[in-house]
Each structure stands twice: as structure tokens, then as C-alpha cells.
Amino acid sequence: MAEEQRDAPLSERLDSLFRTSRPEGRNWTNDEVAARIKESHPGMRVSGAYLSALRTGRRVRPSPELQAALAEFFGVSPAYFVDPGYAESVNSQLAVLSAMNQAGVRAFALRAVGLPQESLHSIATVLDQIRKLQGLPPVEDD
Questions:
Q1: I want to staple 115 with a disulfide (CB 3.0 to 4.6 A). Which of 10, 41, 119, 128 is the partner?
Q2: 22, 78, 134 from 44: Cα distances, Å
Q3: How far is it, in rounded angstroms, from Cα 98 to Cα 137?
Q4: Model pTM?
């Protein structure tokens, strides 16, 4: 029982990668990820069903090679699956990227690249006024 609890974060972390990595606006399927991993690592035995079992916690001990292949596929360090601090940092970054992809925010950000600081300040002021008119709370700058 204690071992299952210790391994639970792996399933949560893996599932989080599946939910936040969204090619072309949709989530990866277990079968797609398994197929891509087999393409890049021909000798590796992995299936969509096995990835599903890992994501739900029904299976808890993937090989180190599979963990490394999953990390490579999703563009994170293998430490993501074992280091809570690193995982938290990656999840925070993924949340920001996910938010940017919502409602065209990414398109606004791309248009702002290269603009002078004064222009960025003006744009932020206009957006603050629009948020206020819409009844949305103000955004705190970091």
C-alpha cells in the first residue's frame, strides 16, 4: 500500500503531460504516443493500453528506458517523474503555455514581440481597460 502511494505521482505526472501537451489543439492519445515512441526507439515494447495503465495507476513501474523515452517525447527531463520540485516547475510552465494557447492569447503575444517598451505599456493599459469594462479582475504584474 505504501509503495502504491509513493508511485501515485508518476501516474499523475504522466497524465498531466498527456493533458497539457496539445498538438494541433487536441490531446495525444495513448496509442499515438506509443506509436511515436516505437518509431524513435524500435526495440522498445510499449502499447497504448500499457500507457493507459500507467496513467491510471494500474501499472506503476515502467522501465527506466520507457520513462526516459516518455520524457524525451514530451520534452521534459526524466527527473520530471521523480523530482517533485522539478515536476512542479514544469507543470507551472505548461500551465502558462496552455493559458497562452487559449482564446488567441498566443497570437497577441506573437504580435507584441519586438515592440518597444512604451508600446507594450500602451497595449497593457488598453487591455486593462477592456478587462475592467468586461467586469474581469485586474491582472497583477510579476
A1: 119
A2: 24, 17, 52
A3: 20
A4: 0.67
